[in-house]
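Tutorial, part two.
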Amino acid sequence: DPAAAPKSFLLTPELHAYVVAHGSPPDAVQQGLIDATAALGGLAIMQIAPEQGAFMELLVRITGAKRILEVGTFTGYSALCMARGLPVDGQLIACDVSEEWTEIGRPFWEAAGVADRIEVRIGAGLDTLQAMPDDPPVDLAFVDAVKPSYLAYVDELARLVRTDGLVCVDNTLWDGHV
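Running the prediction step on this input gives:
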């Protein structure tokens, strides 16, 4: 089960087992989306781990974020987790290049009661970011898209994220390399 294996080279199997045993496990809706993503085969590795999803939801809650920008949504597990941390009037803008992949997540967003908080924008990440206005600012951004474009995404996010906002960048230690 790819979702059960540690995704970080820094986690030993024992440490990963500890993190999972002492964290919040995926509920039925989240597990459904994990399973639907797993049906894609090898591509499923692009989905964040369940323990990362729980951490992302916690970050949204503790920062009080009301407006989130996600660059790289894939099947929407991270969007589902972050949207659950938003207040009812919050908004998550989910950017991805694939309508086919984001459509996999929609029924699960509906089942979780957060679909009204998620706006999908289909297109190249950098083009989407460059087309966004500065106002209203973003409280939290999550980057998990085309790895060679990360610096360009972060440069553009500097304009879009509020001064005391948070930018989370996934895979910064890809295979143990910066």
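Helices lie at 13-21, 28-38, 50-63, 77-85, 99-112, 125-131, 150-160. In part three we will examine how such features are distributed along the chain.
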